[in-house]
Design brief:
Blueprint: E1 16-20, H1 35-46, E2 53-55, E3 58-65, E4 68-75, H2 82-93, E5 100-106, E6 114-117, H3 126-135, E7 142-146, H4 157-161, H5 167-188, H6 192-199
Parallel strand pairs: 1-4, 1-5, 5-7
Antiparallel strand pairs: 2-3, 3-4, 6-7
C-alpha cells in the first residue's frame, strides 16, 4: 500500500510545517549536519515534488501527507539561525508549535538509528536552540537522525558535524531517512505514540 499522496499538489494553506535542518551550499551537501536536508529531499521525491520555491528564508515545497497539507522547508539561514525561517513560516500560516515537525542530525545516535520526541530541550543542537528561542516554545515534535558520535572526546564538534559520511554510514542514514518519512506521515495523522513505538531505536 502506498502511504504517500503523489497525485496532486495540495491547495489551500498548510496545516503542518515539516522542517529538515542543514546548511545550504554544495560543500555541506553530504556532511553530518545536513541529515535533515537529506530527509527533506527524500520526502519531496516520494511526493513527486522539488523543494525549490524560495520563501521564509528557505527553499520549500507543498506536499500532502496522510490527507494533510504540509509545507516542507529547508532553511537557508545556516544551521545556527534556523529559527528565523521557522518563525516566519509559522507566523505567516498561524501554525502552532505542536504542528511543526523538525528533522535533524544527532551525534548521540549511531548512523541508521532515529529517535522521535514530542517536545524537549535543544540537547546542545544549535539549530534546535534557535527554533526554541524564536518560537518561544519547545513543544514541537522532532525526529533525530543518528550521524554517529565523535571519534574521540577531544575531537572538535564543529569539525565532526561538518565532516562527510563514509559510504556505509551514508547508506545507513538513507535507510533511517526512509523510516523518518514513514514516521512523519504517522505524526501528521496524530499518531506520534505509534511512530515512537515503531521507529524509536
Amino acid at each position: 500500500m502506498n502511504l504517500f499522496s503523489r497525485n496532486r499538489t495540495p491547495s489551500g494553506p498548510p496545516e503542518f510545517i515539516i522542517v529538515g535542518l542543514g546548511n545550504p551550499g554544495k560543500k555541506y551537501e553530504l556532511t553530518r549536519h545536513n541529515a535533515g536536508f537529506l530527509f527533506a529531499d527524500l520526502l519531496a521525491d516520494k511526493n513527486n515534488e522539488k523543494i525549490s520555491k524560495i520563501q521564509f528564508k528557505s527553499v520549500t515545497a507543498n506536499i500532502t501527507l496522510g490527507g494533510h497539507r504540509c509545507l516542507l522547508m529547508k532553511p537557508q539561514t545556516f544551521m545556527n539561525n534556523s529559527g528565523e525561517a521557522v518563525k516566519q513560516a509559522a507566523a505567516f500560516y498561524k501554525i502552532p508549535p505542536e504542528n511543526i515537525i523538525v528533522v535533524f542530525d544527532d551525534i548521540s545516535l549511531p548512523c541508521g538509528k532515529m529517535r522521535i520526541r514530542r517536545k524537549g530541550s535543544d540537547g546542545g543542537h544549535n539549530g534546535i536552540k534557535s527554533i526554541i528561542y524564536l518560537l518561544n516554545s519547545d513543544k514541537f515534535p522532532r525526529v533525530k537522525l543518528g550521524v554517529g558520535e565523535k571519534p574521540h572526546p577531544e575531537y572538535d564538534l564543529a569539525d565532526w558535524v561538518l565532516s562527510s559520511f563514509k559510504k556505509p554510514e551514508l547508506d545507513s542514514l538513507r535507510e533511517a531517512a526512509e523510516n523518518a518519512c514513514k514516521a512523519v506521515e504517522m505524526m501528521v495523522q496524530g499518531n506520534i505514540d505509534g511512530a515512537m513505538s515503531s521507529f524509536n531505536s
